[in-house]
Amino acid sequence: MSAPLLQSILDTIDQFERHEIGIADTQLRLDAVQGAIDRRLSHIVGELRLVSTDLEEIQFTMMTDDQEPAASFRLDRLKEIVAVALEDLE
To answer: How far apart are CA 42 and CA 81, in angstroms?
Structure first.
């Protein structure tokens, strides 16, 4: 059950990187996944919460031109953590 959720996180980040969705949609999708992730992956849930807070801060405190690069930088770490967790499940 967790593998499809982890893959959906990676898919969301990929869509953001391809400019298919914005920061707000990315945050919304990542927030939606949090409650469904297995308790054994609590470090992922914790990281999702931190990312959500950071994305909100980026949206409301940074100049528009700086938002996307800052969000991408923040999402890179999440992408690495989720990819490792997904490999561990396989």
So the answer is: 12
CA–CA separation, 86 and 28 (whole Å): 21
The Cβ-side half-sphere exposure at 33, using a 13 Å CA radius, reads: 30
DSSP calls for the chain: -HHHHHHHHHHHHHHHHTTSS-HHHHHHHHHHHHTTS-GGGHHHHHHHHHHHHHHHHHHHHS-HHHHHHHHHHHHHHHHHHHHHHHHHH-
Please tell me the total count of domains within the chain. 1
The overall pTM is greater than 0.90: yes
Q: Express each pLDDT in 53-75 by its tens digit.
A: 999 999 999 999 999 999 999 99
Q: Which domain holds residue 75?
A: 2-89
Could you tell me if 26 and 16 are in contact, meaning their C-beta atoms sit under 8 angstroms apart? yes
